[in-house]
Amino acid sequence: RAKAAGGNRFELADPEADARAITRHGLTTALPAALERGEFFIEYQPLVRLDDGTVHGAEALVRWSHPQHGVLGPDRFIPLAEHTGLIVPLGRWVLEQSVRQARFWQQQLPEGALGMPLRVNVNLSPAQLHHPGLVADTVEVLERIGLPPGGLCLEVTESALIGADEDLLKPLRQLAEMGVDIALDDFGTGYSNLANLRRLPVSVLKLDRSFTQGMQQHPADPVDLKIVEGIVSLAHSLELAVTVEGVETGAQADHLRRLGCDTAQGWYYARPGPPERLHTLLLADAV
Ligand code: C2E
Ligand code: MG
Ligand code: MG
Ligand code: MG
């Protein structure tokens, strides 16, 4: 970080900041070749139904196995990919892998064992949302791989949709009409107008981790409990399902279940991991 230099724009050199800028630059220029060389991989984190603890899906989370820096999390490179536009081909790759994986899980499971078809959640960046090929690409992948649209849930952050006009919402609306679920990710961090929710083609609210954090201590933060209770009741009155992120303890899960949340995701259930791990969990559920 640049040192506070009292308004002087010629700040003292900060070797750490320089190193970070050089790394950022290096990572940015390495992104396209990394995609071609297959250095990205996806971990899947189970989505669990709070009422009976069964796995009903998984969120796809991309990672970069960098030859020098080791495994990098998405926060290190997604913003860079957004900036250069590489997010579009990278996002398409994530979508294709995830759809293949969901198709594989659906085929592997005894029919109806979970009461509903398993689905995969894929994150969409704002740049992908603005890309004109989004609907066509998504339809093409689903059809080619043979996953019913209901097997896919696209996650869009609340902040990406704040102030969104009809042009931006149209592709999401088209996908929703086809049966693809749309989730509002990191909900509660973006200061959006709650009344605005009715206008959005979303069927799931993903409550941000910051809400579940207040339920970790004993007793739980009463204000957090009230807020979540209010959001859940609003969401349900709009016929939206509520998923909670960042559940790390059994106590949190108990609170969230009592407050009427539908599904949960977090380390308490499982960390993100290779697809085989989820496969094992699913088969354990099914017996
Ligand atoms: P997100 O969509 O909100 O994903 C949830 C993040 O919370 C993931 O971080 C996950 O590993 C982490 N997490 C899950 N359970 C817990 C828990 O119990 N405690 C804590 N402390 N953390 C938990 P991750 O994998 O680092 O991903 C960060 C963000 O990067 C994601 O946030 C998402 O916005 C973005 N991202 C990941 N994959 C993709 C992708 O394929 N495309 C795009 N556009 N963005 C992606
Ligand atoms: Mg997400
Ligand atoms: Mg999230
Ligand atoms: Mg989040």
On the 0 to 100 scale, the average pLDDT is 89
The shape is globular
By secondary-structure content and strand pairing, the structural class works out as alpha/beta
Order of strands, widest sheet: 1-2-4-5-6-7-8-9
Protein name: EAL domain-containing protein
Organism: Streptomyces corynorhini
Give an overview of the whole structure.
This is EAL domain-containing protein. The chain is of the alpha/beta class and 287 residues long. The protein is built from eleven helices and nine strands. An eight-stranded mixed β-barrel has the order 1-2-4-5-6-7-8-9, surrounded by four helices. Strand 2 and strand 3 form a beta hairpin. Helix 3 packs parallel to helix 5 and helix 5 runs parallel beside helix 7. The longest helix has 23 residues. The N terminus is likely disordered. It binds ligand C2E and magnesium ion (3 copies).
